[in-house]
Design brief:
alpha/beta; seven-stranded mixed β-sheet; 8 helices; 7 strands; 43% helix
Length: 216
């Protein structure tokens, strides 16, 4: 990763830390996600609840946790450990507070960089990445690291909000676009390139939910 990407990550982390306490959940989670994603929030909650039912008692990863909106729903529906990670310290504080307010003792929040996750290879049978890839600098590096910590035979479930400009471009050209402008086809190619088989892609307005499997 070059200096420009490192600087961009610090900038993104700072912006999201500032937004965490001020307006992120009402304006982004409850506002933008619903506007651009339709029933995205409810679909995510249903999917993550169904996914963890197949791995009772196992630790799962939620990266990025944001203000804990989906994390708290997950922790309340699951008996295993939920590791909630985010690069933004403000988001970690908000997610920690939300889990405490909900009375959850199975949610552990940590500050972590998606490009250098502090977990061993194959640590989690289920990894969630809800609405994060479009703002994480370095799409390939982000997916590669999330795939690394996914256990063989496990699943990575992710969602993105995007303006699919890349759908109108040749595949070679679309590779240079940020994730927020990438087509569903391009996103699927990135998952496949890092050893994840795309099981399904579910479109919700300008959002897509990807369910992928890491062959074991």
């Amino acid at each position: 990763m070059n200096d420009r990407q490192r600087g961009l990550k610090r900038f993104v982390g700072g912006i999201y830390s500032s937004a965490a306490e001020r307006f992120y959940e009402p304006m982004v989670v409850q506002g933008a996600f619903r506007l651009f994603g339709g029933e995205l929030n409810q679909r995510i909650i249903e999917l993550q609840t169904a996914a963890v039912s197949s791995v009772p008692g196992k630790a799962v990863l939620d990266m990025p946790t944001g203000t804990g909106y989906f994390t708290v729903e997950l922790g309340g529906a699951y008996d295993g450990l939920v590791v909630a990670a985010d690069i933004a310290s403000g988001m970690v504080r908000e997610s920690t507070a939300a889990a405490k307010e909900a009375g959850l003792d199975n949610v552990h929040c940590v500050q972590a960089d998606v490009h250098r996750l502090p977990f061993p290879d194959g640590a989690f049978p289920i990894v969630f990445c809800w609405n994060g890839l479009q703002v994480m600098p370095g799409l390939d590096a982000s997916v590669a690291e999330l795939a690394r910590v996914t256990a063989p035979g496990g699943r990575l479930l992710a969602s993105t909000l995007h303006l699919p400009i890349g759908a109108a471009l040749p595949s070679a050209a679309s590779r240079h676009l940020p994730a927020a402008l990438s087509s569903r086809r391009r996103m699927a190619e990135v998952f496949e390139a890092h050893g994840l088989r795309v099981i399904s892609m579910t479109a919700e307005r300008l959002s897509t939910i990807f369910d992928t499997l890491k062959p074991g």
